[in-house]
Design a protein that fits this description.
17% of the residues lie in helices and 23% in strands. The chain is built from four helices and 14 strands. It has helices at 172-179, 251-265, 286-298, 315-335; strands at 6-12, 45-50, 64-66, 86-91, 94-98, 104-108, 114-118, 149-156, 162-165, 197-203, 206-212, 239-245, 273-279, 305-306. A six-stranded mixed beta sheet has the order 10-11-9-12-13-14, sandwiched between helices.
């Protein structure tokens, strides 16, 4: 299935049904009068967070969503049926923005969460409401109110506990493939990874979800390389594993480049808990490993250590450090007061 993390859609709620002009006419009933019923409410357009979805690819083939209008009112004071609501299913982690791509409409994280995207129009009143002492036979009713319509942007930000960052060819995909059952593409050239990957990792009796995003280069926040578009997928992560290619040369410069890009992107990425690892230790001598770790410390990295995604050296250490950080983040999030539940209806 092709990965798609952005989509533009058009939504329109249903119009309300028209009110009815009707008069009571029954045999052997001497007194009649107006009995036109009201129109039914138009259908709402809702978004619902659903399990089993991890991409917005469905919205490439359908961009327009329109709910049904309400039924018109009828005689004998019968109200028309409400139009059926239209529910759009989106993956967990989907943010919905106005057309300006800045105004947030909803952020759906937990399965079952719902948000109102377009409210159905109210039904018009029938002539039974316009009866008065001076107008005993009103021939007036109201048309149904029109529904709402709008263009919206859907942005998917994957739900993961930890994220992998680093320059291209830093070994992120190799690391993810070693510690999980994910099968990212691995090759010996830059930008092998073109879209994010998720893997479920077991560290002893603890489990967490690890996200791998395409590599960053200097100037990614300005659109160079694949840009920083995919950094949104690690905004929700509690911890970042920063892999530095020990065989590439200047490890300190590589570390500083990624830190600058995280700071330029914003959204709190630069302030997240960071674990720094010097990767590809299997291709380095003991002296080169020591020099690389010292350079990382001088560049501002806290407690870096050496690993090898190929041989497995230091991988268990990395996993337990990530698990500890993820656990601490979960406890911190659990201690916060939950936001009040919001229902559109």
């Amino acid at each position: 299935m092709k990965f798609l993390d952005q989509a533009r859609i058009f939504v329109r709620s249903g119009d309300g049904g028209n009110g009815c002009v009707s008069f009571r006419r029954e045999k052997f009933v001497p007194e009649g009068g107006p009995d036109g019923g009201d129109g039914g409410r138009g259908g709402h357009v809702l978004a619902e967070c659903a399990d089993g979805l991890n991409t917005l690819i469905d919205f490439r083939y359908q961009q327009h969503f329109k709910a049904k209008r309400g039924q018109h009112g009828m005689g004998k004071a019968r109200t028309g049926a409400a139009g059926g609501d239209l529910t759009i299913r989106v993956p967990a982690g989907t943010q919905i923005f106005e057309e300006d791509r800045e105004t947030l409409v909803a952020d759906l994280v937990t399965a079952g969460e719902r948000a109102l995207l377009a409210k159905g129009g109210d039904g018009g009143r029938g002539n039974i409401h316009f009866k008065s002492s001076v107008n005993r036979a009103p021939r007036r009713c109201e048309p149904g109110w029109p529904g709402e319509e709008r263009w919206l942007w859907l942005h998917l930000k994957l739900i993961a506990d930890a994220g992998l960052v680093g320059l291209p060819n830093a070994g992120k995909s190799t690391f993810l493939a070693r510690v999980s059952r994910a099968h990212p593409r691995i090759a010996d050239y830059p930008f092998t990874t073109l879209h994010p990957h998720l893997g479920v990792v077991d560290a002893g009796d603890r489990r967490f979800v690890l996200a791998d995003i395409p590599g960053l280069i200097e100037g990614a926040h300005e659109g160079k390389g694949v840009g920083d578009r995919f950094l949104g997928h690690i905004e929700r992560c509690g911890v970042l594993l920063h892999l530095v290619d020990g065989a590439a040369g200047d490890t300190a410069a590589a570390y500083r480049t990624i830190r600058r890009e995280l700071a330029a992107y914003g959204a709190g990425l630069a302030g997240k808990t960071e674990i720094v690892a010097l990767n590809k230790a299997d291709a380095l001598s003991a002296g080169e490993i020591e020099a690389g770790l010292a350079a990382l410390c001088d560049a501002g990295a806290a407690s870096p250590f050496a690993i090898s995604g190929v041989s497995g050296e230091g991988v268990d250490t990395a996993l337990h450090r990530i698990a500890d950080a993820v656990e601490a983040h979960r406890h911190k999030e659990a201690g916060r007061a939950p936001a009040a539940a919001w229902s559109p209806l």
